[in-house]
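Fold these two proteins, one after the other.
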Amino acid sequence: MPLKKYKAYTPVRRYRQSASFEEITKDTPEKRLTQRKLRTAGRNAQGRVTTRHRGGGEKRRYRIVDLRRDKDGIPARVAAIEYDPNRSARLALLNYKDGEKRYILAPDGLKVGDSVMSGPDAEARVGNCIPIENIPTGTTVHAVELEPGKGAQLVRAAGGAAQLIAKEGQYAQVRLPSGQIRIVHVRCRATVGQVGNLDHENQKIGGAGHIRRMGRRPQVRGVVMSPRDHPHGGGEAKSPVGGMAQTPWGKPAMGLKTRRNPRSDRFVIKPAKKRK
C-alpha cells in the first residue's frame, strides 16, 4: 500500500503522509456486520478519569470480525477489501457458498475474487485458516490462537507476521513479531500469510487536528509543569530527577518490566527483544 504525500501549502501538510487507500474496493460496510460502539472517554462508572488523554473523536461503528474462522470446508470468495476505523489492518468481506457473509483480517496479497477456506483440509496458502499441526514448518502466519477454538489473539495488527519454526508432540514453537518465541498447542489455528497494510507504520500524522479526530486529547509534558503537579517539574534541568522517568504519581514510567503472569511464563521459550 503506497503512501500519499500532500502539497505543502501549510506547515502541517508539508510533513503529513497518509494511506492512499488504493486497495479499498468498497466504501460502506455491511450493515448486518456492524454494531453500535459506545465510548467512555476514559471515564469509569463513577465518571472519574481512569485513562488520561482520551475523549472526542469521530463517531465509529464496530465491525464484527470473524476471528474464529470456524466455517470448515465451505469455500468463500473475497467480495471486497474494506477500511476499518477500529484497527490498523484492513478487512476482507467473504461471501461463503452457503450465502453467509463474514469479515476477516485481510492478509497481504489477498485480492477481490480470490477463494479462501478454513479447516484441517484447506491448503496452506494465503488467507486460509488451518490448525497449526497442518501448516508446514517455516510458514509465515498471523491471527494465531492461544487456546483451541477461542479465536485469534496474536499477530493481528497491520504488517504483523509470525513464523512457525518447530513442531514437537502436542506443541509448536512460533516466533512472534516482537522476537518472542512462544509455545502454542498444535490444535490452535492460524491464518497463512502476513497481515496487510504494510505501510501503516510509515504514516505521519502531521497535525494536532488529526490526532483529535482519532479520539486522543492533548498531552502536557511533565518537565513544563511545577514540582507540585509532576515529579519532572520545576528547576532548570530538563531531565527527570533521579535519572528515571516517572508518572505524575511517582511510579516508574519507562524501562520497568510489567509482565507478571506466571501461569503463561512456562509457554515463553525466548523473551521479546529489548527496544532500543
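Now the second one:
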Amino acid sequence: MATLSDLVTAVSAVTGLPEATVFAYGRFARQAGLIQQKGRGRSAAAMSIGDAANILIAIAATGVTKEAGKVIETFRSLRNGRFYDFVGGGISPIPPIDWLKQIGIAPDDFPGTHGFKIQGKFGRFFEFFIESTLNGDLANLFKPIPVAEISDDLWKTWKRDKSPCLKDSMDELVKKGLITPTPVTDLQFGEDINVEVRFSRLVPAVEIEFLRMWDSPQTVYLITFGPERGAQSRAPHDMRLIATITQHVVAAAGLVVSDMTKASAVRSYKPMDGLFWNQFQAQREDQDAKRG
C-alpha cells in the first residue's frame, strides 16, 4: 500500500523537487480534500491514481505550494479538450481514436479543423492517461508510427562526399531504403519517442505532445485542454510560464500508487524503463504468435 509519503518520495525523485516541497504541495492538497486522508503510520490512507494525478497537477500548475488546492480544482475542471493527428491517417488511422473512444470523443466542428473533441474534463482524462501509461495503451499509440534517425557516422560520410542525400527528406531516405526505421521492440521513451505534458500557469491550459524522432523531433499527435477558442484572458500578457513533465514522471507516480514498485526504486528509472521495455516487447510476442 502506497501512502502520501511514498508518493512524495517518488515524485521528488523523478522531478528533482525537494521532498519537503512536494510534501507541502501534498499537505495543502490534502487540506483541500483533494488527497485522501485517514490516519498516520500503518493506518495512513492508501494513495490512488486520482491522488497521483492531483499531486502532479499541483507541482506543475503552480510554483506556490499553498495554491495546490485551488490549481488542482482549476486544472481538473478544464474542458475544451481536443485531439489532433499530424502524421496523417495513412500511417495510423485507428489506434489514437480507439484509445480516446474509451473516454468519449466527437468530430471537432470548429471551422478549418480536422481533429476531435474530447468529452469531459481534464481531471478524468489525466487519470486515464496515467492508467494508459501503466497498461501499455500509451506505448501502443507509437507502435504503428515509423521512427528513424541518421547516424552521426553516416551524416559525416554524406557530408564529406557531398552526397545528394543531404537534400532528401527523411521520408525519401526511408522510401529509398537508405535509412531503416527503428524496430518497434527497440523503441525507447525519452530517446526515440517522447510525451511531454505541458502546464501553462498564467492562463490555465494543458498540452500533451506526442513526439517521434524523425531525423529531428517531430510532433505526431497533440491533445489540448484550456479556454475556448477566441477567449481572452482577463489580463493580456506576453509572458508564458510552462512546467513540463514526461511519461517517466507520470509512470513513476502511477507505478508507486498501484503498488507495482517501491517509491525508493524510481530514482534509478529502472522501474519505468522496465515497464516500457516490456510493453514494446509484447509487440514481438504478438508477431511471433502470428507467425507460429
